[in-house]
Design a protein that fits this description.
Chain lengths: 337, 337
DNA sequence: CTGTTAGCGCATTCAA
DNA sequence: TTGAATGCGCTAACAG
């Protein structure tokens, strides 16, 4: 049933030539006679010859595979990012090994181990919520495996990264709310990982300052992104004497949980409370009351750019020019629904 | 900066023993003296020795990698399936290579080619909408690469498959609607791929028959799952003289598009029109008017079972016992919201 | 233009 | 209990 897989050796034997000639002919090496080349290529096609990748990987010390580590695939956001990565990888004839950290540091490390053992040529990663040190990634560089961080980027020097700036869009979002008359805008922020730049908060402050609206620190609360905690902090917000009329939500997960809970509390969305958010998930278009605006972070682009950067790193032999291409910052955009 | 990666050869040299002894010691081979074994393992640990997977892959003719081909990752349904696959793969120390067909046959074939060249040990696949022949998969078996179909399974003999039966749940869904008084239930079916069993339709017929409710063929319409077509066929349904009071939607995508459009047409959901569906996406819990019920197909389980089946195939040397384990059918469950 | 040879890291067979 | 030798399939340096 299962046929024997042909090798260049057999091609060589059938043609009574040497295996190196076959190898070169198949690679269109200039120093091979046209006649021989044709012969070899014809026979190879007939025999359904296909080079044994594992042999090539072994010989070249390259696997033509990149590892992609994401917090999870359930969030539409990361699924979109994968598309960008896959696209660029495919163009370069690379495969993509995917692993989900599920926002668990230990798991992130384990995935990284598997990938290292698999000798992936490079790694793309959007770090987990728990990741508070990047030692495990730095170790990879020792093995000559470059790492590019994207989207969720640790806030440390000397790394390669691609991320999307949120500062301007955050200001846009708040301006939008202020223009609609809101004066008390709460910010439900995500987990305070020391490793990620906090542009949302910076934008939040700046917008208030610029519009001369005083900051009320009790309007800034924190969730771990779980539904339960989001509901709890939202409830606390609404019990304030000066309760907010609008919410800036860390992302669409938080926004959806907030809106759902607000409805349960019989609040009128867009009347008692308005919500703006980050991520701009396509799925929110199906909601009756989606966030009135959401910051688009172009995950597809981020994935693609990050992958391109990784390939640049793989191509360049000299470590010097690597520093130059290090960091790419994309612009986000406020989408009003 | 980048350290040299140690090999068994170097361990052997430092210890003045042969590489085969080292190899055996690292594998806990019984014929190695305890003393030697300890020495070797100690030094290996100190040197941070790690076997070169690419060499092992080459030597063993195995890559310890399985390929997973899905229509797309955007559907929560498939993301969930991945979790099951990843879980089982990790337990077996296998890696997962993921590819999205984007419901495009050509792309499905291309991905398969890449995976074959990469010499994956086995393939898991949920076929694309367009896939009307499985020649490209059968070809894989020639290379001794087993294929397990799951969820979207072609309706042909002699394959290995894991899928979720929808017949009973479809009947449950219709019984639910009938019990609520509906007598004209439309069925918006998906693309009529000849390759997938049509249990939804069979259940639709049977439920009507059992309840002695006549079938009106004009209530059975077809969408290609695109929003535009779904809207078109729904509109046509609602223009019927005997228009339906309920919809059985092919899946949650169709259900959401239908509900959204119905609202645009000023129809009252759950009054003018009720919807039941398949897939039971978690995200629908955020909707104000989700389908009143949805058939849960346990994608996570399906992925896990399919992967287990694949490993069984990989383990078994004799082709005979492969036939026995061939097909697994799971039960679906109607979840009422 | 083509052939010979070595070697990538490892598991394994054969010999001691 | 250990060592020597072989080969997996391919590329590339070297030799003609």
């Amino acid at each position: 049933m299962s046929e024997k897989i042909p090798t260049i050796k057999e091609i060589a034997q059938k043609l009574n030539i040497s295996i190196s000639t076959v190898s070169r002919a198949l690679h269109d090496h200039p120093s091979i006679g046209l006649r021989t080349k044709m012969q070899v290529q014809k026979l190879a096609a007939e025999m359904n010859y296909e080079p044994n990748q594992t042999a090539i990987q072994f010989k070249q010390g390259k696997t033509f595979t990149i590892g992609l580590i994401l917090p999870n695939l359930m969030e539409e956001y990361f699924s979109l990012a994968i598309n960008g990565v896959e696209q660029v990888a495919l163009e370069n004839n690379y495969n993509v090994l995917i692993g989900q950290s599920h926002d668990d540091l230990e798991r992130e490390q384990k995935i990284l181990d598997t990938m290292r053992r698999h000798r992936v040529d490079g790694v793309l990663v959007s770090i987990s919520k728990q990741t508070n040190s990047i030692g495990h990634f730095e170790q990879l560089e020792k093995y000559n495996i470059p790492v590019v961080f994207f989207d969720r980027v640790p806030n440390v020097p000397h790394i390669h990264s691609v991320w999307c700036s949120l500062y301007d869009s955050t200001i846009d979002a708040l301006e939008l709310l202020f223009k609609k008359g809101h004066r008390r805008v709460a910010y439900i922020q995500g987990p305070l990982s020391l490793n990620i730049k906090n542009e949302r908060l910076e934008g939040y402050y700046e917008a208030h300052k610029h519009n001369k609206i005083p900051i009320n620190e009790s309007l800034i609360v924190t969730t771990d992104l779980s539904k339960a905690v989001t509901e709890k902090v939202f409830e606390k917000l609404m019990l304030l004497k000066d309760k907010p009329t609008a919410i800036l939500a860390f992302n669409d997960t938080v926004a959806l949980d907030t809106i759902q809970y607000a409805k349960k509390m019989k609040l009128k969305i867009n009347k008692d409370i308005s919500v703006v958010s980050y991520a701009n998930w396509p799925i929110t278009s199906y909601l009756d009351y989606p966030p009135i605006a959401s910051v688009e972070q172009f995950p597809n682009d981020q994935g693609a750019r990050a992958t391109e950067l990784l390939f640049k790193l793989l191509d360049s032999k000299s470590p010097e020019d690597l520093v130059a291409v290090g960091n790419i910052v994309l612009k986000s955009k406020l989408i009003v629904h």
